[in-house]
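TL;DR need structure tokens for one chain.
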Amino acid sequence: MTSNENKAMKHNPLRAFAQKVNQYPLWLRQRLLTWMFRYKVKLAGTAKVDILGTNLKQVTFRQKNYKKVQNHIGSVHAAAMALLAESATGFIVGVNLPGDKLPLIKSMNLQYVKRSQGDMLAVASLTDEQIALMHEQEKGEVTVQVKVTDAQNIEPILCEMVWAWVPKKK
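>> reply
TL;DR here they are.
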């Protein structure tokens, strides 16, 4: 990472928080990241989305199959699955974007291909090239890879999440 990239990353409070928290034991790390995210993203708090861990290039989120987020057949509701994928991809974009830029979801393409069972996991990641692009371009967009699986490790939903970034208004 160049000194300019490093300087830009220092101004990102989300990244600074995640880096600091990643030094703590796993159980505390998970609680602090989850608390912060639920506090900032109110709907994620209502659905009780959890962050299981991140290395700042990849993140794992979990949606437990609580009654509150179930559909009429007892599995995680389609909207809760969309929230899970959007939250995971938004987090990974947010921790990698320089602090003077604002992340915005541009599009979500969701295909529900199988019935899900139990809790859901979403693993979102960015490539080094995508991260470099976020630092080089004033405005831009990336398609963030995300895989959503259920308790049987089946992928009941296929997601394409496109995130954009623009300069923050002063």
